[in-house]
From TrEMBL, chain A:
GO cellular component: extracellular region; immunoglobulin complex; plasma membrane
Protein source organism: Homo sapiens
InterPro entries: Ig-like_dom (IPR007110), Ig-like_dom_sf (IPR036179), Ig-like_fold (IPR013783), Ig_sub (IPR003599), Ig_V-set (IPR013106), IgV_Light_Chain (IPR050150)
Cell compartment(s), UniProt: Cell membrane; Secreted
Keyword Secreted among UniProt keywords: yes
Domain (Ig-like): residue spans on this chain: 1-97
Descriptive protein name: IG c445_light_IGLV3-21_IGLJ2
Amino acid sequence: SYVLTQPPSVSVAPGKTARITCGGNNIGSKSVHWYQQKPGQAPVLVIYYDSDRPSGIPERFSGSNSGNTATLTISRVEAGDEADYYCQVWDSSSDVVFGGGTKLTVL
Amino acid sequence: EVQLVESGGGLVQPGGSLRLSCSASGFTFSSYAMHWVRQAPGKGLEYVSAISSNGGSTYYADSVKGRFTISRDNSKNTLYLQMSSLRAEDTAVYYCVKAGSSSGYYFDYWGQGTLVTVSS
């Protein structure tokens, strides 16, 4: 089965740039989607198809995907960005797969 | 405005059954595949089940195969998840989720979730 690996936690100071990685075998050949989940709330789609942003998501959120790593980048981090972030792909053998999630802490 | 409202969660004994419902509005329900994703307390997201837009095709994660049944009623804009032979490890918040496009396996709208607790 296909496995997505995310770091359990990432910390960043306000105004700085946060990078959250999602590792998978040849993930660059797949479409990666990212979700933000704040405590007690449902997940929200923040990036789809590697780098597209849904309407309403700030331009500070961007994504890239190449080789064995996809990355969600959050520029000019704000306190309100503190949340859990999940990557997700579709794989022909495993269907929908989620990464384990990364807790973003804003210092 | 897209809205997905789940209902039917609650406390059930191991081995019991429960049916979740998800009422959809704000989009053409019959045009989109729909999915269920769950999240155990303090854990990550787990994909559970999917159904095509016309209900003719379904998918189940191995962890629920043979115990859960997904269905939909396009005339009522409602998605269902019939859960039987429930186990403690099925305890989770269950989210009703809309597919982002007719061909894309991503999820653009999520319900608020309904909590299922399996315990004696």
